[in-house]
Each structure stands twice: as structure tokens, then as C-alpha cells.
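Internal tracking record. Fields below are filled automatically when a chain is submitted to the structure queue. Please do not edit lines marked as system-generated. If the sequence contains nonstandard residues, flag them in the REMARKS field before resubmitting.
Queue: standard
Priority: normal
Entity type: single polypeptide chain
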Amino acid sequence: MFDKFYNLSGLPFLLTPDTRFFFGSSGHSRAIAHLVYGLSQQEGFIVITGEVGAGKTTLTEQLWSQLDRNTYVIARVVTTQVSGDDLLRLAMANFGLGDTPGTEKSTLLRRFEHMVRDQRKQGRRCLLVIDEVQNLSLAAMEELRMLSNITVDGKASVQTILLGQPQFRPILASQDWEQLRQRVLASYHLGPMTEEETRGYIEHRLRTVEWHGDPVWEATAFAAVHRHTGGIPRRINTLCSRVLLFGALEETHTISAGMVDDTAEELNRDLGAGLQPVMPPAAKDQQDLVRRIEQLERHALRHEQVFKRVMDLLEANVTGRI
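SYSTEM-GENERATED OUTPUT FOLLOWS
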């Protein structure tokens, strides 16, 4: 709806990863550099961690778009709350290998080894990506380590990228995971974007769908988005999409900090979106009270305007049908 109102060629803040919208923040650029370095080693494990919604999946999608598909064959496993044997079967399925129920593990391993050998003969390397790795059991990780032992002509034939949330780092640092940790050749933690990068990210996504300054974003609105989202891309997408929707309903061509604040509050109330403003530690009670009163006034006015806009649209649709 708002894309038509603002004459955009598409929706700029969809949650689905899309390489068209990739924004090379300092953190994402460093993460890509670590991935490229790790792949150049042609063996071992690459670890990328980050908060939920930090852009780990988008990062790997961007990497895939740059890889030569004649050099790599890629499989990705997203569901990781599985046993070691099930993880092996999932990896095989995503590499295109069939699996007959009841097949012995030794047979599966031989089939997997034949596959990687065949790929190696054709000049391709097997790249396995495991998402949500913090959910893996030690037994499942041992399966991955064993797969990394497969070699062809003395060279490793399977390389693995592990994507996970921050809690995976202390897990990896534990004594039980020593053997796998020794095979990690590159590791990077993807942090949130800065306030400046958040603004660049929003403007980049808007320009990708042919935004030409409508709506105008006030500088304080960008700062408010960063304050409420902490610079996490998925949270930014959720908040900005709703802000544009309300902007279209109110028929406004300016996005203000007040609109962002009110929308974040509504998201927290309606969806529990986890958008929390970072308040100055020395904020005075009186200033906080004034802000809350102003916010309530804007909130009431917004609901009145949105209700009127919706009623106008309904009346127009009814009149059009008559």
C-alpha cells in the first residue's frame, strides 16, 4: 500500500533476504572478508556469529552471489535441533543425495564420500553451511568434524560455515569442543550497525526501490530508528516498514522522530517486537513526564487520523462498486 503512495517500485523493508538490498556496513564488510579468507584456505571451519536479525543469512546470500558455481557446490542446513545421524542425512539431502530409510550409517558415509570425490574430480568443492549452530549437540558437531576429514588426493573436500547466535561462542570455547575449535580457520562476530550506518542502510534500501526523497526523513527520525532497534537490520526493517505504512495512511510526506517513537511503541504493544529506546541515564522525571504526555497526544491524534483515512478508503471502495 505505502509503496504506491510514495511511488516506490517495490517494498524496501521486506524481511526475506535479498542480495539487491545488501548494505556493506563496516561489520558486514569485515564478515565478508573473513568468509573469503576462510574459503581461500580450502579446509576447516568458518564461524560467523551475531544477534538474531543481525544479517548473517543476508551475508551468506551475498557471498553466494559472488561465488563461481562451477567451483562450489553448496548445501545449507537450517534445522539444527537434530541428532548426529539426522544431521548427516540432512546434509546429504541438501547436496542432492537420496536416502533410503533404514540405511546404515556406514553406507551413508560411503555414499557421501563418493559424492565429494566426484565433485572434486569435476573441479568443484563442497561447501556446507549450518545455520543456528548454537542448537547443535556435541554428537552432531562430531559428525561435522568427521565429514571434514574426507580428503581427495590429500586435500580436504568439505568445508563448513557455522552460523549462530552469540551464545555459540562460549560453547565453542568449552573443553568438550577442543578438537573442532582447532579446525576453525576464521571467526567473526557480526555486531550492530552504528547510528550513521543505520541511516545509510535505510537510505540504501529506499534508493533500491527508486526512492527520490518522498517521503522526506528528518535526521532525528533516523536517530530514533537506531535508538529503538539498536542497529539490528531485521528490527530496522520491521520498524521502518510500519512507519511507512502509517505515513501513507496519514498521507504525510515527512517522517519525523515522533512518528518513529509512536510506531515503535505500537509494535512493542501489538507484537512484542523488542524495540526499546535507549534513554539517557540522567533524564529528569519532569522531562520524562512531558515526553510521555506529548507521546500520548500524538498517539491519540494518530489513531484519529488513521481511523479517518481507513473510513475514507472504505467509503471510496463502496462508492466505486455502486
